[in-house]
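Consider what follows.

. . .
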Amino acid sequence: MTTSGLSSLRPLTRLLESSLSDKLEMGEYQDLLTQSLLATNHVQDCAIINLKNVSVVTASKGFKLEPAETQAFLNAFKQPSNIRDDGLYFKNINYTCVRVDNNSVYGKHDNKGLVLVKTGSYIICATYREGMYPSVCVEAAEKLGDYFKSKGK
């Protein structure tokens, strides 16, 4: 990773090391997305999805997820072999899955990508486009996932 890629993660590290309460308010979820993912400049769009009711808790401005898309994300973790074989269809694009396990799904299509990270309560969705470092997008999403896991969420 280049120096500019590493510096993109500094705000995320500071935010996650700070002492936020165990109970997050809605605005704090939005702040987490903004400060931990979008601030890297290597995440195009992002969202936090509640696993219990498969609904969007919060999303970056202008990023809309349809119920069928959030359900497809959940299914990706329930049926990883299907995703490995068939890919993941999202926003009219079939993403080839380059990693699928119990906690993470990484999809790629040309110069675009999709990162899903599952915690106990949430799925974190992050996308990147051409000109962004996929590795920074992945690391930011995984760190946010680790943060939620450390809070028991």
User: Anything to note?
Assistant: The two ends are 29 Å apart (CA to CA). The first helix runs from residue 3 to 8. The chain has a mean pLDDT of 87.
